């Protein structure tokens, strides 16, 4: 698969078959992704690869806090009009595929809970960054490059992914089960697995703003 095709066809997968990813494939994905660029080669990132019982414990703990109405540790920032419009557009397309109507609040809440359960994926990679770089825009930018590289490298092995902030938003849960030091800040989770082709949400292809809306040529 060439680079252009990989970028254009990468998508967020939210339904997986019950199949584990071999360790050697996960290692190869990360070895490739760690070639991502970083400012002056500081490589401020860490990746915690979670599977099996530990991942199940995190899913269950996230689920309990969500059902108990506990707020996440990192609330989302407010969105400007255009960004809010794009998010709403994504939600409409997703719920249309899932056949969930706007007034079906229970079904919408149940779907949100699936995000907290990391879409029942067999593997999750929790991305953290050295806290000294967290307030530095370049440090977070570097981690973003790594996240994209993980998703693209996974495609080479037929592994599908979804980057989710919500799935890792209960930082207290993540820290209860993983060896995350005080010098690390949790950023996002990337779930990985083999796509379930029959899962309706996996047919979603999110829209992109037209070139003239987001790029200026001089």
List keywords for this structure.
single chain; 218 residues; alpha+beta; 4-stranded antiparallel β-sheet; 9 helices
Topology:
Blueprint lengths: L2 H7 L13 H11 L11 E7 H16 L13 H18 L6 H12 L6 E8 H4 L2 H19 L4 E5 L6 H7 L6 E10 L17 H4 L4
Antiparallel strand pairs: 1-2, 2-4, 3-4
Explained architecture:
- The radius of gyration is 18 Å and the shape is globular.
- The model has no long low-confidence stretch (mean pLDDT 94).
- With 218 residues, it is of the alpha+beta class.
- A four-stranded antiparallel β-sheet has the order 1-2-4-3.
- 45% of the residues lie in helices and 14% in strands.
- It is built from nine helices and four strands; from the N terminus they run H-H-E-H-H-H-E-H-H-E-H-E-H.
- Helix 2 packs across helix 7 (137-155).
- The protein starts with a helix and ends with a helix.
Low-confidence region ranges: none
**Total helical segments:** 9
Rough shape? globular
Q: What quaternary form is this?
A: single chain
Structural class: alpha+beta
Distance between the termini: 33 Å
Q: What is the residue-averaged pLDDT?
A: 94
User: How are strands sequenced across the largest beta sheet?
Assistant: 1-2-4-3
- The ordered string of helix (H) and strand (E) elements is HHEHHHEHHEHEH
- Total number of β-strand segments? 4
Radius of gyration: 18 Å
Helix content: 40-55%
Largest sheet: 4 strands, antiparallel
Beta-strand percent range: 5-15%
